[in-house]
Design a protein that fits this description.
CATH superfamily of the largest domain: Aldehyde Dehydrogenase, Chain A, domain 1
Bound molecules: adenosine-5'-diphosphate
Strand order of the largest sheet: 12-15-16-11-10-18-19
Number of domains: 2
Oligomer: single chain
Shape: globular
Mean pLDDT: 97
Radius of gyration: 23 Å
Low-confidence stretches: none
Helix content: 25-40%
Structural class: alpha/beta
CATH class of the largest domain: Alpha Beta
Number of helices: 13
CATH architecture of the largest domain: 3-Layer(aba) Sandwich
CATH topology of the largest domain: Aldehyde Dehydrogenase, Chain A, domain 1
Length: 465
């Protein structure tokens, strides 16, 4: 089996770099080094760790343009989005550098004379992360930053489509003074590295962002050593546009949610449910704005939608569009492709489908592509029923200017993230994560630090004797 893999530019098919995979023995060695480094890293003080994290963040910002260019080349997203992702990635490092200093314990009022009851917080140990290709910088930092802040050591396996950004971020972490065995990177096939990580008793936590089937496998594999797991898995986000919505706002925010990263995010709008009284005007406005989007190589000026990541993604998107059209959907724009099979470059033009119905694949399967399917509803309970009719529960969006409608939807949608008149909800200081089969645990905010901490309870008797 070849021990190297090629990283390609999905916009051109050009080979960017050839990377050597770590062998199982090398990965085992890195796990051992991470476990040994944990013995000293866990004893460092929080202010020291915070300072190193800030240095790392500043170094990334110093190299922002170069990192963004690497990201656009390996992922395909427009350069403006890559620059935005660098800021988003460092916002997690900055937030957790601050939070490192706020890992508080407790004292508990006692039930018996002469006792003192203490609760203290401790890092879980060596953390292994597996990250996806759609946000090569941010998915790494929002795992690494809380892990290091808590006093854990960290090893990451990036996606084989986009390892270059992660490798660069790890180099900069070392340049900032974070010891090399505290922050490590391995390259290899997902399944093989995943098995080594989960089999190892040295790894105390697995943190993963990726597809639901892989997440389920990792949870099962983690059972034998009872590892802590944080899982950010798939989504199938509904957008509900209520009768009283500000239609222009709803269109603009749906565009942001749907077409960012060529529709390849787990929080992308995937089913757009519009009240029947405004569905025609919403569809017309969404189509008009969608037609304005410029498709191309993300390095070119003004491009807003880049290629999709690879042929498998392209094939899945085309299948969903064809399935919807065959079952009676109408094509309002898009449904066209620029494809170079020989080089491996796949562009899907932003697509709007109307008259989408429940038996179409696109209503149930994650699309991960720039396709906006529209359907209608007559009353809010029907919209909620359709929205919740999925094993996923990551992000949901709705548009209404009525506080009653907004409160009702917020209360009844079974989703971990709710955007009310907002298509871009994510922030380092807020908890990100899903219900049901969309995941376990949260990243970001104060919630994002807890999974890297163990709780120790100390009951002291004869306290003042
Ligand atoms: P996608 O289909 O979006 O690429 P995946 O879940 O397949 O999502 O990939 C996300 C990450 O999981 C990548 O780093 C990939 O290499 C890794 N991966 C893929 N399969 C497995 C597996 N069986 N075990 C562990 N990691 C895996």
């Amino acid at each position: 089996m070849t021990n190297t893999f090629e990283v390609k530019n999905p916009a051109t098919g050009d080979i960017l770099e050839t990377i050597t995979r770590d062998t199982p023995a090398q990965i085992a060695q890195k796990l051992q080094a991470g476990q040994e480094a944990f013995q000293s890293w866990k004893k460092t003080n929080a202010h020291h760790r915070a300072n190193l994290l800030f240095k790392w963040s500043h170094l990334i910002q110093d190299h922002k343009e170069a990192i963004a260019e690497i990201m656009t080349k390996e992922n395909g997203k427009p350069l403006a989005e890559s620059l935005g992702e660098v800021d988003y990635a460092t916002s997690y490092i900055d937030w957790y550098a601050e939070e490192a200093k706020r890992i508080y314990g407790r004292t508990i009022p006692t039930h018996a004379d002469g006792k003192r009851l203490l609760v203290t917080k401790h890092p879980v140990g060596l953390v292994a992360a597996i990250t996806p290709w759609n946000f090569p910088a941010a998915m790494m930092t929002r795992k690494a930053a809380p892990a290091l802040a808590a006093g854990c050591t960290f090893i990451v396996k990036p996606a084989e489509e986009t390892p270059l950004t992660t490798i660069r971020l790890a180099e900069l972490a070392h340049e900032a003074g974070i010891p090399t065995d505290v922050m490590q990177c391995v390259n290899g096939r997902g399944r093989i590295v995943g098995e080594i990580f989960t089999d190892s008793p040295l790894v105390r936590k697995i943190t993963f962002t990726g597809s639901t089937p892989v997440g389920k496998a990792l949870i099962k594999q983690s059972a034998d050593t009872v590892k802590s797991v944080t899982m950010e898995l798939g989504g199938h986000a509904p957008v509900i546009v209520a009768e009283d919505a500000d239609i222009d706002l709803a269109v603009a925010q749906t565009i942001v949610s749907k077409f960012r990263n060529a529709g390849q995010t787990c929080v992308c709008a995937n089913r757009i449910l519009v009240h029947e009284s405004i569905s025609d005007v919403f569809a017309a406005k969404l189509t008009e704005k969608t037609k304005e989007l410029i498709v191309g190589n993300g390095l070119d000026d003004n491009v807003q939608v880049g290629p999709v990541i690879n042929e498998d993604s392209y094939t899945k998107i085309v299948k969903q569009i064809d399935d919807a059209l065959n079952k009676g959907a109408s094509l309002l724009t898009g449904g066209t492709y620029d494809v170079n099979h020989e080089k491996g470059a796949f562009f899907v033009h932003p697509t709007v489908l109307a008259n989408v119905s429940n038996e179409m694949e696109i209503m149930h399967e994650e699309t991960f592509g720039p396709v906006a399917p529209l359907t209608t509803f007559t009353n809010l309970d029907e919209a909620i029923q359709i929205a919740n009719d999925t094993p996923y529960g990551l992000a949901a969006y709705f548009f209404t200017d009525s506080y009653k409608v907004g409160n009702y939807l917020s209360e009844n949608l079974d989703y971990g993230i709710i955007g009310w008149n907002d298509g871009a909800t994510s922030a380092a200081h807020a908890p990100f994560g899903g219900m049901k089969e969309s995941g376990l645990g949260r990243e970001g905010g104060t919630e994002g630090l807890e999974p890297y901490l163990e709780t120790k309870y100390i009951s002291i008797g004869n306290f003042l004797e």
